[in-house]
Design a protein that fits this description.
alpha/beta, three-stranded antiparallel beta sheet, binds pyridoxal-5'-phosphate
Length: 392
């Protein structure tokens, strides 16, 4: 399939090599975003190329300051990925064998993977069906004598219900590590994702709202000692150089990624507003369709600023709808088809009787629609009309 006739990202009708025209709406298309910031990005990358300083350094330090400010935190430490942000935060807090971390089974694998890689045990509790996020009442009940931390995930760009979680943490002296990989700029009671817990973990994977040209991540915190520990851990635990007090690793962020991210960060609020407008467009379109008993449940919005890394609907015949949309050129995705307590590699740390019905139901009914900022009104209308057509 050749790329369409119009400029990158604008095509909706693509010319196929056999001369046929096909309608195609991708789940995510970053080409238009790049086209608009190309000059700025190239200039920033050139700056790094001229300096020939590729690892950490001034670009990373500047990005750390900017992300800390953006997220309402005192400190931010650039790391190699969102996964490593989670891992190094747990390491810095000394979480390991014998410790438990209460978290959600409805997330990307890295959330639980980081806990298990350190020899600690994830204690899953089910989600709130309204937000897809950890249910605080169930979290309170899961805290035991080995619990060291809570790890809520701000899934799809909406903050978990942090007030009750912070109350639990205060009562039991626990840390909160926010998995904010999907939630940069999301707000809860006026506070930004990543600023409420002991540490906030961000990912700059290209499909996140602030995406690098490769892998990258960041840990935010208001604790100066913790930030210092993470800085040492990300650089092989060395302080000073070649003197290794603690066992760290290579979790460094590189300067080219930081330079790109600094350019993109300036545009992030604009892109977030476009995502939110796209979400409102879908939600009103879908609501108009089925007053009363809805065949499609749009994502509920509980807290002030949902940043819509994903727009996830729920529907009974999810697989049928997905197949129908795919046949009509509309790409969708399932986040996530298998809950974490059912993952084969975690079986040894999970009770065989573990059951989280809300998460399991979500795995069977969720469908993410294209939501990227540059999506056009005709594209969204086309998607809404095809969803209608499927249920008619
Ligand atoms: C993307 C993501 C991660 C991992 O981030 P990477 O940068 O890909 O390592 C962790 N948790 C959640 C919820 C994510 O969406």
């Amino acid at each position: 399939m050749k790329v369409g006739r119009e400029q990158a990202g604008k095509e909706f009708v693509e010319d196929r090599s056999d001369g046929e025209h096909v309608t195609h709406v991708p789940l995510l298309d970053l080409r238009m975003q790049y086209a608009r910031i190309k000059d700025e990005v190239r200039e920033a990358m050139d700056r790094v190329l001229e300096s020939q300083r590729f690892i950490l350094g001034p670009e990373v330090e500047a990005l750390e300051k900017e992300v800390a400010e953006y997220s309402g935190c005192r400190w931010a430490v650039g790391v190699s990925s969102g996964t490593d942000a989670l891992l190094v935060s747990l390491m810095a807090l000394g979480i390991g064998p014998g410790d438990e971390v209460v978290t959600t089974p409805f997330s990307f694998f890295a959330t639980a993977g980081a806990i298990v890689r350190l020899g600690a045990r994830p204690v899953f509790v089910d989600i709130d069906p309204g937000t897809f996020n950890i249910n605080p009442e169930l979290a309170a009940a899961a805290v035991g004598s080995r619990t060291k931390a809570l790890m809520p995930v701000h899934l799809f760009g909406q903050c978990a219900d942090m007030d009750p979680l912070m109350e639990i943490a205060r009562r039991h002296g626990l840390h909160i590590i926010e998995d904010a990989a999907q939630a940069i700029g999301a707000e809860y009671s006026g506070k930004r994702a990543g600023s409420m817990g002991t540490a906030g973990c961000f990912s700059f994977f290209p499909s996140k709202n602030l995406g690098a040209f490769g892998d990258g991540g960041m840990v935010t915190t208001n604790d100066a000692d913790l930030a210092e520990k993470i800085k040492i851990l990300r650089n092989q635990g060395a302080e000073p150089k070649y003197y290794h007090k603690v066992l760290g690793g290579n979790f460094r962020l590189d300067a080219l990624q930081a330079a790109v991210l600094r350019v993109k960060l300036k545009h992030l609020d604009g892109w977030t507003e476009m995502r939110r407008a796209n979400a409102a467009f879908y939600t009103s379109g879908l609501r108009d369709l089925w007053p009363g008993e809805p065949k499609v449940v749009p994502p509920p919005i509980r807290h002030e600023r949902h940043i819509f890394n994903q727009y996830v609907i729920r529907t009974g015949d999810r697989d049928g709808l997905r197949d129908f949309l795919s046949r009509n050129g509309i790409d969708t995705e399932i986040y996530y088809p298998q809950a974490l307590h059912k993952q084969q590699c975690l079986a040894h740390v999970i009770s065989p009787h573990a059951s989280f019905p809300v998460s399991e139901e979500a795995s069977g009914s969720v469908l993410a629609l294209p939501i990227y900022p540059e999506l056009t009104d005709p594209q969204k209308s086309y998607i809404i009309s095809k969803i209608k057509e499927f249920f008619d």
